[in-house]
Design a protein that fits this description.
This protein has 314 residues and is an alpha+beta fold. It has helices at residues 13-16, 36-40, 101-106, 113-135, 160-169, 181-193; strands at residues 43-46, 50-53, 86-89, 91-100, 150-152, 176-179, 200-203, 206-211, 214-218, 236-242, 251-256, 262-264, 267-274, 279-292, 298-305.
Length: 314
């Protein structure tokens, strides 16, 4: 028997909540990022999954005459093309989602279990897409920078001088820097120390730091010392500067158009049926690649130290 003095005199929270209609959120997925690189790319649709990038042979400039005099013959010339142009084939990122029919039948309110499973799986596929655009061994941006377009930091930590040198490499209408958030923080510390804090610009309703008017776009797909989430605050990474767009002879993204079951450009979801275990399966496929149209469309700053800090006098 409970003590008379401690016996409850009204319904408690623990019991009352059993009859309450508790609001719920959809599943929150902490691995989702804004994926700014995908948003800022210019995307070119393909009909058959392959893009051939034709380039001019740089060793054969055409001849011209300026200030022709009477009787002077004009030179005969032509612009030669590379005889073995590179072809970019689309890469596939796929996943199969299974949902037991009992689960979707009995537990479909307030959230449709199939739609939620597909939504979360698609987010995961799109995160992998951005990672592949940066790191893929074939078409990834970091793997397609010529040696002439690579520079290293002077002192390890990223300085305004280093960013200016990178702009000098991609000086024809550069579009934006791409850097790990910790590299951006490290650059901000160096700018603060020198008394030249970066200004900001608004894109997609969000504020971005800039340097020389160029947005510095964050992406955690640029690894630090080869690791996505190193435990240590120290480490080195790279910073990219891109010119994007086919009209600018820059970097472009590629995707397959008119896919069966297309949900977004290059991504489709197709129902695969129900197996003998009563599990319904759905195939998620995303086809993408990236192409660097000219070598000077991309530059990289290597050996960027993100672990340098300062103590300021008060």
């Amino acid at each position: 028997m409970p003590d008379q003095a401690t016996a409850p005199r009204s319904l408690g929270d623990t019991a009352a909540v059993l009859l309450a209609n508790i609001p719920k959120t959809a599943a929150q997925y902490g691995a989702i990022t804004p994926r700014w690189l995908v948003r800022l790319f210019d995307w070119k649709p393909l009909e058959n999954g392959v893009l051939r990038v034709n380039r001019v042979s740089d060793d054969s400039p055409s001849e011209v005459v300026c200030g022709q005099v009477a009787g002077q013959e004009l030179p005969e010339t032509f612009v030669n093309y590379e005889t073995k142009p590179r072809e970019y084939a689309l890469s596939s990122i796929s996943s199969v989602v299974g949902v037991h029919t009992r689960v979707s039948d009995l537990y479909g309110s307030p959230y449709d279990q199939v739609k939620e499973q597909l939504r979360l799986a698609i987010e995961n596929v799109k995160e992998r897409q951005e990672s592949e655009l940066v790191n893929n061994p074939d078409y990834g941006l970091l793997r397609n920078v010529s040696s002439a377009q690579r520079i290293k930091t002077r002192k390890g930590f990223p300085t305004p001088d280093d960013f200016d040198e990178l702009i000098a490499k991609v000086w024809k209408e550069p579009s934006f820097f791409l850097a790990h958030p910790r590299a951006i923080a490290a650059f901000g510390r160096e700018c603060t120390r020198r008394g030249v804090p970066p200004s900001t610009v608004s894109l997609f309703g969000n504020s971005f730091l800039t340097w020389r008017g160029l947005p510095i776009v964050p992406s955690d797909k640029l690894d630090i010392d080869g690791r996505r989430n190193p435990a240590s605050q120290a480490g080195k990474t790279s910073v990219l500067l891109l010119r994007v767009g086919e009209k600018k002879q820059g970097v472009i993204g590629l995707y397959q158009q008119d896919l069966p079951g297309q949900q977004t450009p290059g991504l489709s979801v197709r129902y695969m049926g129900i197996n003998r275990n009563a599990v319904a399966t759905y195939l998620i496929s995303l086809y993408c690649s990236a192409a660097v149209l000219t070598e000077d469309a991309i530059g990289v700053l290597d050996d960027v130290d993100v672990g340098n800090y300062y103590e300021y006098a008060r």
